[in-house]
Amino acid sequence: MTGHDLAFLVVALVTGGGALLTVTSKNLVHAALFLAVTLSGIAGVFLVLAADFVALVQLVVYVGAVAVLFLFGLMLTRAPIGREALDNQNRGLGIAVSGGLFVVLSVLVIGAFGGTTAAEVGGPRVGDIGMVIFNTWVLPFEVLSMLLLAALIGAILLARRETGDSGEEQAPTRIDMGTAPSMEAERMARLEGGDDQAELTAGGDPGPAAGRGEGRA
Amino acid sequence: MSIAEMANAAAGLAQFSPAPSLLEIGDSFWLSAVLKIAVVLAVFFVVPLVVGYMEHKVMGHQQARLGPMEAGPHGSLQLVADGIKFIQKEDLIPSAADKWVFAIAPGVAMVPAILIFLVLPLGPGIWGVDFELGLFYALAVGSVTTLGILMGGWASANKFSLIGGLRAAAQLIAYELPLILAGIAVALQAGTLSLVGIVEAQSTFFIPGTEINLWYLFPQILGFGIFFIAAMAELARPPFDMPIADSELVFGYMTEYTGIKYAMYMLTEYAGMVSMSALMVVLYLGGWQLLPGVPMPGCGGSGNIFDCNALGVGLGVAVTLGKIMLLTFLMVWARTTYPRLREDQLQRFSWLVLVPLSLLNLAIIAVAKGVF
User: Fold this and answer.
1) Domain locations in chain A?
2) Hey, is the C-beta of B343 within 8 angstroms of any chain A C-beta?
3) Which chain A residues are Cβ-neighbours of B150 within 8 angstroms?
4) % helix / strand / coil in chain A, to the nearest 5?
5) What is the reported pTM?
6) Which of A80, B80, B219, B256 falls 20 to 30 Å from B68 in CA-CA distance?
C-alpha cells in the first residue's frame, strides 16, 4: 500500500462517512453540514487524483457557495432548524434510487476507466483545461451557461411571484411594524401627503398597535 | 498527440515550473515541510498582532486619545496581555447551544485563514509553495471561512447570533464576486495564476512603446479600488461590519463566544486583514519590489528581483511587510472615517456598483491586452 493509496483511503472514508451521516442525521442543519463535509471530501478525491484545478473549483463552488446557500436558505425560511428530530419515511424509495444509481455509475466508470492504473493518473494543467474548454468544447460550455441563466431567471420568477399555485392573488408577506412606514419610499410619500407621523420611521412610535410587545415570544 | 497538447502547442504555452522556495532544506521533504509550517504559523500569529496594535494606536490618535499605554512601552504588549487573558477565561457554552458545532465553528473559520499564507510570497524566495493556481487557491480557500461563521451563528442558539451569521453569509457571497472578478483581471494581464509569476510579470511590464516599468496598480486602478473595498467587506471590517453591528446585534455571530474561541474568531479577522493586504501587494503593488523600475539591491534574475543574496531577501521581506502595514493602515483609517452601511445599501452597493464595475474593468483589461 503506497502513501497515495493511504491518502485516497482516508479521503474516501471521510466522503463516504459524511454522505451516510447526511442522510441519517435527524437535524436539518447537521445534515447540511455533513453535506459540506462530503463535498470537501470530494474535493480531496480530486486532489488525490492530481486534478488540483477541479478540486479548487469543487471547494469554491460547492463548499463556499452551495453549502453556504443551503444553510442560508434553511435559516432564512421557516425550515425546522431547531432541535426537532426529523425523519423521512421514504426509505425504500431512497434505497432503490441510490442503489440503482450506484450500479449504473459503477458499471459506466469501470467500463470507461477500468484498465487505468494509478501510475497513469496525472491531472492536466489549468492552461490545457482552458484551451480545451474554449476550443473543442466551446458550444456545450455556452449551452451549459444558458442552462444556468435559465435557472437563475426561473428562481427570480418563483421568488417574485405574487400569485400562489391556486391562482388566487396573495398579498406578499410583510413584517408588522405598526403604522410606521416600513420603507423609505413609503415614508417620503406620506410626508408629502402631509402626514406628520411619518417623520418617525419604523421603531419610533408604534401607533395604535402599541402594547403588542407583551405578545412577543 | 492529444487535443490538449495540440492546443497547447498552438498557443505556445510554456510548461509551468514552480519557482524554488528558499525554505527548502536540501532534498529533505520533511525538514522543508516543518520549516515552511513554522514560517507560516509565525507569520500567522505575529503579524496580525502587530496590525492589531497599530489599529489600537492609530484609532486612538485619530480620535484624539492615546490608545493603550499601560502594558509595555506605549502599550505595545497590550495584545499579548489580551491573549493571556483569553487563554485564562472560562470556556462558556450556552446550555441551548449545539455543543459540537459551537466548538468546531471557530476552527472552521480559522484554518482556511492559515492555509492562505502557504502561497503568499513575502519576499524573494520566501514562500511556502509557488502553486500554479496560487491566486485561485487563495480566493477558494478563503471562501470556506463563511461556513465557520454561519456555523457559529446558528450553533449559539441566540437570535442575535443567528441574524449576524445570516448577514455574514449574505455579505461574503455578495462581495466574493467583485473580489474574484478583480483578481481575474490581474491574472489576465499577467498571463498566470501563480502569485510569484504575477510579481515577476509586474517587474517586467512596461508601458507599450516605452521602457517605463509600472505596477498593475496604475493600469488597474479601478480593479485595485474594487479589490480593496471588496476585501474590507469580505473581512466584515467597518464600514462593512453589518454581521457584527454592535449597536444592533450585540456582537453578531460572536455574541456567545468567550475565551480562546472568541480569540480564534478575532485572529481570523486580523489574519484576514494581513492576507488580503498581502494579496493586494502581490496583485497590484509589485510584491517585494521597492519602486517600479528600481532593481532590488543584491538581486538578479528576471526583472532584477529574483536570485537575491541575504541583503536582498531581508530588504524584500521588509518592503512586503511595509506595504502590508500601509494597506492595513488604510483599512483602519476607513474604519474611523465612515459610518456603517445599512444592510440594503451594502447589498445594493455590491450587486449594482461593484459587480458591473469589475466586469467593465475586466473588459478594459482584456481589450487592452489584445490591442498591445
Assistant:
1) 3-88, 126-158, 178-207
2) no
3) 68, 71-72, 75
4) 70, 0, 30
5) 0.80
6) B256
